Description:
The chain is of the alpha+beta class. The chain has three domains: 10-22 and 255-488, Vanillyl-alcohol Oxidase, Chain A, domain 3; 45-135, 2-Layer Sandwich (Uridine Diphospho-n-acetylenolpyruvylglucosamine Reductase, domain 2); 142-251, Uridine Diphospho-n-acetylenolpyruvylglucosamine Reductase, domain 3 (2-Layer Sandwich), CATH 3.30.465. 26% of the residues lie in helices and 22% in strands. The longest helix has 18 residues, at 449-466.
Amino acid sequence: MAELSRRHVLVLAAVGLVATGCAPTSPIHTTGPTTAPKPVGPPDWSGLARTITGSVARPGDASYNTAKLTENPRWDSAQPLAIVSAAGSADVATALAFAAKYGLPLALRSGGHSYPGYSAGGAPGTGIRPSVVIDTRQMKAITFAGSQVTIGAGASLADVYDALGSKGVAIAGGSCATVGIAGLTLGGGVGVLVRAYGLTIDSLTAVEIVTADGKTRVASATENTDLFWACRGGGGGHLGVVTSLTFATVTAPTVTMFSLSWPFSSAAAVLAAWQDWAPTADDRLWSTLKLLNGPKYGTHPGLFVSGTWLGPASGLNAQFAPFFAAAGAPTSNLRGSHTYHDAMMRYAGCATIPIAQCTTAAGGALVRESFAATSHIANAKLSDAGIQQIIDKVTAAAALPGVREAGISLDALGGAVSKVDAAATAYPHRQALASIQYTATFPDGTDPAPLDAFVRGFRSSMMPYWGDGAYVNYSDASLPNPATSYFAGNAARLKAVRAKWDPRGVFTQPQEY
């Protein structure tokens, strides 16, 4: 689903709202120079630690086993060479120079939600060698200047929304508590206010970035404009290490959250009605449609629509009217109006806990969960055959070995997203109807192969209806033509920008684009 709250469905007690799936962000990662300098000798790790403000964790250090973790436990077996927890752009530049001096591969990390596990720095099966991980999660300062906010690259969305909401302002974005703001933004930024305010990149005004030459630069509409264009939707780990981002904010809205459900026997009617209604509804209304299966659903999968409405609460019934007329009345229709701050904390699963515990780190109340996932971009409405394909695949998901929950999420686009030209930013899918996630969650220790096969097979079965488009923030290492899938007509321009700013290929990864 969009960058949202948990992959499993939670019915929030206050208003029965379905918290939507926690999406890994754009993988901020690299595997090192294509032509690495000849190493000058054994790496001087203690020297590196002395020359940075942050910290260095190496195998055997007390902090290593915690510092190396990403948000997906399936990559916990990674053994990176070191984790450099950078405190600022100077630390990043020092780490880049250190890796170049000793010919060491790199892996960059913001929130740690990379779908293919690249930011783990060398997990088996990812195609990444043991690497020096440059981790930006210490860079989480949030400062305000008028209507603008500057956010450190490693700030989690929970911290971002807490700070914004406390000031009475907002930006559009996902709601997964632990996603890093940099990863979310660099790939585009689909979330719960996307139809009203656009993608996260549509409010981005500047980035601070350390490029391959080790220099810290600002990219904006007036400085390094090609780099700024590429940072708005071109994905992470290809152009440099973003250390902070500046956004234009809007006045925080009142958010009416809603949750609807139907028996699974209504799936065909609900799917058909939703795809007619959701992408063309009032721009103030956003929704996600989920078909999910697993042990907790019993004999039939779950069928849910949840979302946000920024208009008067009294106007929501009128918005639902054409949808319900075509889909049939839901068996559950719950809603509640909240401040922006409260709404985003609810989506993050953090409404009843202190912000300091809204994390999976030590002392946190949130729990990491293993997952397999991939994506699609829906540019056309489904035929009856396409709708039936979804129903059949979700029904079959119950038989997956070790599955906790598996299925599909469709996040409505349109609205403000579609009012920006496809070439204005690197994100190209401006006229799409929806962003699609195929997901499967499972307990730690479960063989992920059948779950990977399920989500990828699900995607393949829908290609006759939706084509090959995909969302870079939900990267899939198996895509045969990732540049085309992620960036469509913007791929060639993005490649040229990369060649300009990283001519030696310092920032590379198994899936090049």
